[in-house]
Amino acid sequence: MSSVRTRTLVTGAALAFAAFLLADQGALFGSDLPKVALLGAAAGAVLGLVPDRLPAARLGGFLTGFAAAWIGYALRAGVLPDIPMGRAIAAAVVVAVVTVVAVATANRLPMWAGFVGVATLVGAYETTFAATPTEFVSDSTTALTSSLLAAAFGFLVTVLLSELGTVSEKNTTQPRAVVRDAPVPAPRDAADSNVTVEEEATR
């Protein structure tokens, strides 16, 4: 089995185990954590697996999107009317915040990571918000903590395994032998050629 397949298999098995623990024992950290175990672990895995920017930059983009989604819910709960227009304005604000941050940082905080953060909070909280928008403060706090914890598990698992795989490949890679071409004799100039011809003629 190739090293790429082995690393993928190990990463998938570790993520499956992490999702199992979160779904089975996550209630120790909050009753809502098992409900978002798979969502959070999958989002964190995407964040850790995509080889774009450093892990810290990806995490920063993710948290930016997460915060932008929370701002959108805050607007819907306290400022905007609960009608399609209000939800549309909130959605536009969320996208605008992620875009502005990506532009301001020259995409050092990647835009795609911001939208992963948006999707994580929306997936964890939208149904609850639609049912009880007046409980925004308490419900959103619960959704924030539970989904962030689940995402942290997935992110750490993938980043750590990725780093271990990189170190392992560096240690096992053999240096390639360098074959140098034979030296090419310098060409004779015209004067040397004439002298050689004259010497041969006098022999």
What does this structure look like?
By secondary structure, the chain is mostly helical. Helix content is 75%, strand content 0%. The model has no long low-confidence stretch (mean pLDDT 84). The chain has one domain (3-166). It is built from 7 helices and no strands. It is flat and about 55 Å long. α4 (84-104) packs antiparallel against α5 (111-131) and α5 (111-131) runs antiparallel to α6.
Strand content: under 5%
Shape: flat
Query: What is the straight-line distance between the termini?
Result: 72 Å
The total beta strand count reads 0
Number of helices: 7
Low-confidence stretches: none
Into which percent range does the helicity of residues fall? over 70%
Classify the oligomer.
Answer: single chain
* Average residue-wise pLDDT: 84
Radius of gyration: 30 Å
Largest sheet: none
Going by helix content, strand content and strand pairing, the class is mainly alpha
Give the count of structural domains.
1
How are the SSEs placed, and which strands pair?
Blueprint: H1 3-25, H2 37-49, H3 55-78, H4 84-104, H5 111-131, H6 136-172, H7 190-202
Short description:
The chain is an all-alpha fold.
Q: Which descriptors apply to this entry?
A:
single chain, 203 residues, mainly alpha, 7 helices
